Structures
1.
Amino acid sequence: MDTFDFVIPLSLDALQESTSTRQYVVYNISTSKEIPKKIQEAQVAFRQDGPHFIIKAQNFDVLYSVLVSFGSVDGEFRQRSWELLLKAMSKVTAELALLLDEGDLSAKERHQWLNVLKMTTYIACNLTESFENEYNKPSTDTLVLGKQGRKKSARKSDDGTDWEEERNRMLVQLFSVLQHPLHRLWEPPIMEEDFVNLIANCCYKILESPTMNLARTKSTRDSIFQIIGTLVKKFNHGLACSLKLMQLLQHFEHMVVPCAQGVILLIESFGNTTVVSEMVREIAKVDARELMKDTSGLRNFSQFLVEVSEKCPQVMLPSLSLLVNFLHEEASGMRNCVLSILGSIVLRVLSSEQLDPKSRDLRDQCLDHLEDHIHDIHAFVRSKVLHIWNGLVSEKAVPLRRQQQVLKLTLGRLKDKSSHVRKSAVQLLTAFLKGNPFAAKLPLEELEGQHEEELKKLKEMDPKAALDLSAEEENKPQVEKTVTGRELWAAMLPEVVAIVLEVVDEGGTEDDDDDEDSLEEDASLNDAVLEIAEALNSSKIRRAVKLLECALEMFHGAEVFGYDPEIHSSKAYKKLSKDEELTDHQIRHLVVLERIFLSAKEMEESKNRPAEEEKMDEDKKPEEEGEEEKEETEEMRAEKEAQAEVTKQKLLVNYLKDSVCFAKLFNKGLPVLCQLLSSKHVSDVLEAVQFFVTAFEFGLLNAMTGVRRMLALVWSKEQAVKDAVIGAYQRLYINIEAPNERARAQHIVRNLSALITGATLGERTSMEEIIAQFVNSGDITKQCLTLLWERFTKTLPDTTDDESLAGLVLLAMCANSEAHIVSSNIGVLVNSGLGERGLHNFTLVKETCTALLKLSPAKPKTDDPNPPNRFNRDHEIFERLTKILLEGLNILEDRQYSPMAVEAVSLIYSLAEHPDLICGEILQEMSKIMLSHHTEAADSASDGSQPETEDIKVPVGILTRFFVFVGQVALRQLIHLDTYVFSELKRRNYLKEEMETEKKKKKKKRNIRKSLATSATEASMIRGGSQDGDMDEEMGLTGAVADDMEAEYIRSICETEIVKADNLLALVKPVILAVCTNPAKYADAELRTASTLALAKFMMISSDLCEDNLQLLFTILEKSEDHAIRANIVIALGDLSFRFPNQLEPWTPRIYARLRDGSPKVRQNTLTILTHLILNDMVKVKGQISDIALCITDDDPRISGLAKLFFSELARKGNALYNVLPDIISRLSDTELGIEEKRYRTIIGHILNLVQKDKQLETLVEKLCHRFQATVTTRQWRDISYCLSLFSYNEKSIRKLSENFSCYADKLFEPEVYEFFLGILASARKLVKPEMKVLIEELESRMQESHEKGVEDENVLNKAASAKTKAKNVKNSEKGAKGRIRGRRRKESSSEDEEKTEEEEEEDEGEEEEEAEETRSQLHPAHRQNKENQRMTRRSGNMEKPHKKKVTISTDSDEDDSKVSTPPKRKSGRMSHVKPLSENSSRLSRSSRRK
């Protein structure tokens, strides 16, 4: 048994066959029944013989049998075999350690131990693989439960052992045995490759387990790569390891992280970097097309390389040349991978400031690649590159000179079509702001001012330096390249060599020395070197050579003039010396001159670095400074100090210039970022919000524009956007560090006051919501409220009027959340807001009224036992308001009176007990004031002896304010009755029923009648809104609302009492009508605006008054030249449509017509009103909706955005958009409308993209196909085919297209129509299932056949038309001759000529019919059927109408009129269906013959 050789086989079966006499062969394979007994015998043999048991008594065969019959062997004996192998491996490791350390093994012992090692390791590795395969089989739970059956905990075997633990034990034994010098067992001492592969393949097999990417298997992964690292380091397994890892990455997705971690371990623990290089080399060999096909492998490769480069980027440096080639391949994943590697290398390897020139060039090349791919063709690559730049900018790894270029490229990506790219671009801009190298604040105006000021100082200090700086700015390249001293010396060297050859002889310089080119006798060594360097820098080479010759004589032994002939030779200067042999003395001159020049350049560069200047002054001191110290004169020191100051000033100017450019670039991108705030992508909005917060903190000039635009986002439907906006304003205005609570409150109030100042109405509405959030969250504390009250009342010193007003507005906003803020300070509001200050500041009065309105509930409760809280009519609030309204009527300078009056009337009707009485008194007093003005005017007129007139003359401003007040009173009176009085009646009825219920004390609960309406108008609309009567029953309103007498009572009052009875409003009505109906007499724009609004408010009260004056209102709407009047009327018509829909319904087209108004404001208001009415089902969607569609392409972006929003909301209302789509397409395709084709496609493209339901798309496909038959122009065919090309086609849609092929077959000859249909089939081929592709191909062939036949038919018809035209010309000439002959004989035989003419015409028609029939026979069946239908239509039309000849001969005048008008109708009717040109021409020639 000791004489055999164990050869590691390629497979298990190979051990049963022998290839040589000495090879070990397995002859006895035990069955599963025999194995248990033999396993026990093998265990006994192991206890007796130790590790040598495996080569005795066929124990190896037993273990081999376990491998062969692994599936059928009992689990207990498999486990015994496993334990036996573990013990054997441990024993082999221990004994081999002792034997190999001693090193005195005989050949026999070495051979015996080699067999033991190989056989034990072979069984151990194969048994490990068998257990691993068994472990990785899916369990029954996994098969039944799917994903839920997979457990995160380790799975145990049937006997309860944990395989993962057992596997680790074996890996430890394998690693231990490899730590010894096993190669000594082989002869020669080189380990067998099969043995290395045996252990390595076992490790790779374990890595294939899906559990290898779990955290619990980290110890297993580490052990495996420790083994592999040992094999690579000791036994040359590197190439095989690279190939195997590549295979694992290509086939197993879970291997990315384990492989990356393992390779990093190989690099860090074993210093092995060749594995990564080999893997990159192998990946580079793979064909790019194969990489594109294998997407999973490509993804795994790229992720692996990125993981490794992040941890060990220096390993990737040798492979960069191979990796960069992937940047030009189509695989975007590999481009992302390579760019990530470049970013990691720059960030972790090439980010140091002390880089050598080679490393600096490499860094620039990497950054160039990153710059280039900011404009990559693939969106994910662009996004990835921007993300990489973000990391570089955040870590300050981007050189300063490159930042502005990257910033420009990033600003261009803000308009990218991909939302991911835009998001990354905004993030990069934010990173630029946070990490900008210039200043913590970037106010552009301040920076520009500082730059100009410092530039002036520089010009004063050194005009030449300022000019040089300007020249540098003009000629400055994009990427600065510094010229090194060595490059300058190389450029000067030819001239230096020539002068040295000329001047320097063997023994010294020429005799004609000049005193100017010699050194002074008392000159020191330092002076000599400086003079030589200065001469070289100023290109005075001859002087430098002579000075050097003098210095060599004076300081012969100086180290700076040292020269070693063995090191320096003439080879470097041979080419420049024109083949003249240089002497040692001349070479010495060249060497010393080069040394002095380069040293001087290095010193000059070091002085230009301010950061190193001091360090050099301290550390770099010449050794000879003590002996040869130079005494500088005062003039030289002053000159040096001045030069240093100029240098510092120059640096400061450059710094400020870069800061200004940086800030300008950001300000240039702010408008685009403002647009991103309105994006439909949430990511765009969130990133833009974060950017503007950062920009505002850095003081960018226009950042406040974006901060104000963010206010509207608080109404966003996306909760993430709302939270981001609230967080942004909290960060900007609330989260402030201050030493105490009072100081913090002052900061908060000051910031919020600045935000509220200058805010529009929409921004203030949004701010109310944000302030309410702050109050609810406790961010606005009681200290802030106290400070606001102090500001409002001006008890805080140095408070301005604007600050006081802002404080009042903020208090009113806070009262939305907590009404007690106002209710507990009514006296303060009245005294400060409605007192003496209010008489001179109507804006303050208006805001005070707004704050007091917070006391009134939004909707009165009908089941509240307590009456609403209202003040008596003699309350101080109303007395002061009355005084302000009356006294302010004459103060025409303050133009805020009208808004104040509107708020004051609203406050009176909301809080007063009898508001109608208060307003009535005010109206009477106002009338007296106006009459007093008329009396004064009449007195002056009588003094002038002018006749008295009946007209009352009142100043225009006063009458305007009077109309505003009257109109608001009428409207508030309606609301008062409709809402508050109605609710009070309902509340009292409710209390009455409650009392009756309590009195009766019935056992059964009685249903309490509660009205669903909260106003009389709503109740009336519910009762009378349904015409059929069934709707009330369906909605359950017949019992509760139909018999609501209170609502009827309120409605009757509004109809008969308010504006029709003998009261103040009815008396004012004629005055309003007089102004509205006489625009020429009352030409003042403000007066006409106020009167029109007052009329509209009066019309809101009574349906009869509304119906009587609608024509007047629409006349003003259409005729008025003032766009403000038209815009106001449109808003009023929206309110009237809501209140009286039946009266306004006939006038709806007039409202739609305002969408074509010349004023953008009128169009915007009209679109807003129509959107509100249509989406709330107050107006039926009719054909005029196409007018709204036209607004999509309006020049005003606000109108265009509103139109797009309207259709988006309409698409959400079930089938509303689908139902009107045919009307929109039909109307927009109408030739009479004359819409440009580009505009049509823009509109239809936006609308059709909103239709997403498959069923609707299928029906639309069929409808549009049928519409082809009703169209007559090629433009209409192109429009319909374009609409069809916008859909996403499924199987049913394709079938609809195929079934209706005959509808559009005869239109396919038109090239653009044909291209659209081919595009439809091309896109459908990518989406549908493979079995549908047969139908698509068949349909495509039919389309192609029809297209070719149609083109051919058109050519035939064109040729026929041209031939007929020629024939017609010949016949016309013949008929002309015959006609002239017949003319001479007409008197004799007129009747005979008539018959001949008729016969000839019939003959011609017969010939034409034959020719047409012959042409039709050549047409495609679809074309033929279409032509036949048209021919039959013409014939039927001809049979119904009299003959032309008889019509023209008739003498009856009446008949003549009727009959003469008929032919044009016939002709126009025939021409209304325009056909292809050839057919039209043939038909026109035929009709001309008949004539």
2.
Amino acid sequence: MAQCVQSVQEFIQDSFVPMVAVLCSEDADKVTRKNNLNFAELLRPFCRLTSEGHIRDPNNQVQVVKNLRICVNNVVTSPNTASAALSPTQCHLLNEVVLSCQPQESAVTSVITAGDYDLSFSATTPWFETYRENFLQSMPASDHEFLNHYLACLLVVSSTETVPVEQFLKLSQEQHRIQHSGEYTNPKWFIPNTLKYYVLLHDMSEGDEKRADTMYEDMKQRYGSQGCYLLKINTRTFSAEDDDQIPDPWSQYLHKNNLHNQDMLDEVAPAVNSAAVENNICAPEVDCHYSAEKDGASNTLKSHPLQLDTPSSSGSLHTLSAVSTDLKKGAKDPESLAGGAGSHGACLTLNDHDHIRQFIQEFTFRGLLPHIEKNIRQLNDQLVSRKGLSRSLFTATKKWFGGGKVPEKGISEPRSTCGPLYPPEAPELQIRKMADLCFLVQHYELAYSCYHTAKKDFLSDQAMLYAAGALEMAAVSAFLQAGAPRPYPAHYMDTAIQTYRDVCKNMVLAERCALLSAEILKSQGKYSEAATLLIKMTSEDSDLRSALLLEQAAHCFINMRNPMVRKFAFHMILAGHRFSKAGQRRHALRCYCQAMQVYKERGWSLAEDHINFTIGRQSFTLRQPENAATAFRQILTNDSRQTATQQGAFLREYLYVYKSVIGGNEVSLPLLPLPCIHSSATRIYFGHERRLAEGEKQAATHVSLDQEYDQDMAAMWCHLEEQLVAAANRGTIPVNFQPTQCCLNSHTDNLHHPLAVMEEPIIVEVTFRNPLKVSLALSNLSLLWKFTANVVSPSKEKTTELVITNEENLALEMKQKDDVVTTEVILEFHMGPEEIKMARLRLLPHRTGQLNIVGVVYNLAAASSGEMAPSTEGQQTLDLMVVRGRQDLKIQGPRLNQTKEDKMLVRYGPDQRLDPIITPPMPLMEVFFLQFPTALLCGEIRKAYVEFCNVSSVALCDLRVVSTHPEFFTFGSQATTPDTPLSPTSAENISAYTTLVTHPQPGSAAFEMLVSAEDFSQPSGVMEIPINCRTLQPGESTQLPLWLRGPDLEGVHEINFLFYYESTDKGNKISHRVLRHTVFICASRSLSVQATACRSSVPPHHSLDDKGSGGTLVFIDVENINTSEAGVREFHIVQVSSSSQHWRLQKCINPATDKDCKLISRERAKLCFRATRCKPHQGTSDAVDKYTFADLNLGNERIISSSTPCGDFFFRGCRTSESQQVDVASSKTASSIKSQSCAPTEDRASDITNIVKKCNELDLNIIIIWKAYVVEDNKQLILEGQLHVALETIGKEASSVTPKEEAQEMMLLKFKSELPPPVTLPSAELSQLIKTNLHYPETYTHLFVQDSLCMVPVTLTLSNCSLAQVDVIIDLRHKSTSPESLEVHSSFTWVGQTQYKLQLKPQEVLCLTLRACFLQAGVYNLNTPRVFATPAEKGGMCGTSQQTASPALIIINNA
């Protein structure tokens, strides 16, 4: 139970006090009425004695009476018998007492921490204490007990009476008639000989004081000095000068007194049922019609066990409407209850107060207590002398009970409900009467003995009502005994409650018993037993009592040593429900709010919904629409598990409440909870949405809200933009560079304010989520913004900030002012159940400044499930359910994790994506592509066109482009495009190449042209787009040709372009703008080219070239690897060109004819060309960076390979491959550095490798130009293309198709534990230091008959291919042992010197004359000399055997 102001002893003593009746004459009543009080009310504030009293018990022991209070009431007669329930009026007034006692805002609150619960609730419940006090004082008198029977009667007569004694006699006779005539059952009197105390009331302002004193002396002679009293009051007289404030102690007592004096009203409305009054009473501060209308709004809801009851009819509400209104007035203005205007006690001074207090003390000590003491003695004597009683009261024998003990804890079913009725003079009642007298004067030990004895008598007679009363008071007496000689018999109370409730059907007495027992148990810390007792007392007959007891039970649970938090909350909910049924809406709301602390955010979603719904309805009924709206918002925002029907009802209730909240406040928009907004998912796009393709035009893809964000792609675009910015700023990136972000989301960098452009739209994509299972209808959806404009005043040069917002216009749904920002409105936006939907809202700024996007504004309504009837009434109903509100967009920035403080604390950085800065106009470019393919063959050349349009009002310049695949496209190079006429054939076929008509002759030399690489490529890879004057004016557009080349690898390729341009007006916050474009090209296989180079075996002096420069053959294998799916019938190789700084193709050896090679599917052709070094005059210092292009056309057209687009793609392809090689070389260098640390002997090997590489370097690039004939839609198309092969080393094959690296990756994934193999010298490459050649006659005729030895001269030519001195060893003693060589020739021998040691200078050619000796005719292979070579500076190393030429066969004929 909650904390109380009184202790349990004070509470019980004040619950049972001596009762004193008052009978006043008319004149006496007039005297007291001057103070707006009757006599009983006049005495009430002074009825508690301040000093101790004494009595003597039957054993003549003095008993001290402390803190005694008496109760004085006017005599109100009633012929009705006592009922087992309170009258309807009493119930109603108890309801009013509780209603008028509400918790104060400054009341003490308790904070309890139980586990992870922190609860704050009211520590005291003054409404319960007030109810309990009034309930106990308003209990009807009963025949089975005497505690609330009158012990004495005050007879009050005014001193103004002519003969006061006669008036006293009349009053005395009246009292006697009321008590003994039998006409009245109420009031009840304690004993037949009631104490009559005569009071002479003297009005000091009117009467004669001496006469009053004379009358009083006469009274003392007649009634004795202890039986009468002269009370002088009304000393004070009113005057204009008298303004002294006298305290008013009567106000707090008058409302309680009103309860006791309302019995006369029972006849006014006897038909009103008590339960009906309680269950249907309406709170007086609430308009009945208003409440009924509100309750009627939720009739569609399904009945819930704890749902609020709605009044069945307005008639039950109006039954007590007038009474409720008056009582409400009386609760706030207690003077009205006294029946008059003005303050109480206006004619009384403080001395009068003391007179009244002294009168009460005199009456009690000299009249009442001696009367009680005398009656106790008389009753004790009667009981002791009673027939059959041989011993004193305290040692009664067991024969009273037939020798057996009646069980006390369990009562068997009685013979009748009421049991026997004792006459007033019955000995059992005399014992009870004595016990009550002892109890009233605090003689609890004697009272307990009497109660205990009476209890046994009643139980033996099966008088259950009497027995229950004796058990109840015995338990209380045992508890109140000083020193606690015996423990509190709680089972007495349990038995009494059970008897009252179940046997006697008297809930009033059962409730009193429960209130006493619960308070006692609470004082002993037995909260669990107290809670159980209180819960048992709840029933359906009284909602108010059940609500108060359930609330106290909840306090018991929370005040335990281990607080039971959930039981506290559950019983608070039950108490709130019963409070609601009893019409106590404020108390119901308080209970639900306290219970909500336990259920909130604990996963009890259905319980939360019920509590919030109830709080919402109660708050709305109590005219607290803001609190109601808050509660309903909680229902709608939580992840509810309610059914769709229930959620729909919740939504309608919420809209109805919100409509009333914003009814009188149309300017400020309220916050709406639905739909939920995922603020962090908000995306902002700056700029116009791109136009789609127009006919054959394909617009640049750029950025749109339909694209998903990719972190890797964003980094790629940022890298491309950095290249462009560096190229525009002489190779450096500015310090304040920020990459362009057209679309901002939660993954982008939002630490800085984004820059938007004036007159360009800002599109905000807001993500809405409907958490309900019912549809939502949003309308008039728009953005809420605040704009800060920088205004320069003309008089002062200072800049002032002008803040503009559109909230007021949106709240009133007025026409928008478009001079600052144009706001787009979405008229209808429908959301299905549990749907996530995006809304794209636009703003168009017209001025520069700071824009802050605050939130969204919209109308919210519950979407109708069916078709609305086209009636005006239905339309009005629909309008009522539409509310206009807002939701703010608040985006939390990223978690900071840089400093130590950031890591230790939870800090978040700013997110500025909703706060753009509006900048002055900027140029805006759109790019369109014409005839742009989606599929190409590998290496295919296609010509397209690109169109640049300036759609803004500002000129743009410095147009650049960069791509992830620079080898894919080119805009051409004007410097290298010759002004030659196009051939008719190329014009007819619309060839992308520049061609010349030629008539090649067999064996003719190639056409050559010298070109500088700087004319084709730019070092940074950024291309400047060649537009006229480098500027594009507003509204101007231009078209440029664009050549494309299919990627060398088959598959789908993603190719990204980034266009860059600047404004001609410099100095803006936005320095440049970019435009993105992404294309996907599907590349199909075309041709596969493999090329090798080898040294020719032709002797140098037979070669047409200069010394040491000839003898290199280039073999090219071309295979058609195209599949038939592409529709390609055949490929024609129309030209082979070369490009190199040092080498060139000289002539074509195979095919020797002038027809081009034709390849159908899977066919292969082998081409052979002779390559020579460039002429010496072309190798001067001026032409170091120049490339020699040599064209060998196989048809009747020569394609100029050094011009656009052939030369462009060659150089772009070379630069791409070189960059890849640099990456590979750098990784190899790193690995070689690691290996050198382990093996220092590799330094020598690397030197030799460099020598060998220089020896075998070729640096010849082959360009294969082809045409393909394709049949498509019954039309023959001619496709063109070129493939590149880079020959870098003699003897090493090169391919146009890049080998797949899966195998290499698989090798990298293997982890081997073996040691790396030892480094070996590149013998395959060292074997090519010396080129050997044998010159001899093919046939030789010798007459073996004359000379058996045939001597043939053979010349051995040695050519040093390296740039270093080489030591050569020639060994002629080598004999071939291979079976192949034995089959070809028989044995011969070299004669003369068989071993030579020579040293050849760099690129030196040396001829040795040898002689071969043959013994017989035949075919012989002369290629048997072994040549060993090693660089001269590595002389200590053994020589490496050099590669020999093909077999040198000689035929020896016999003459």
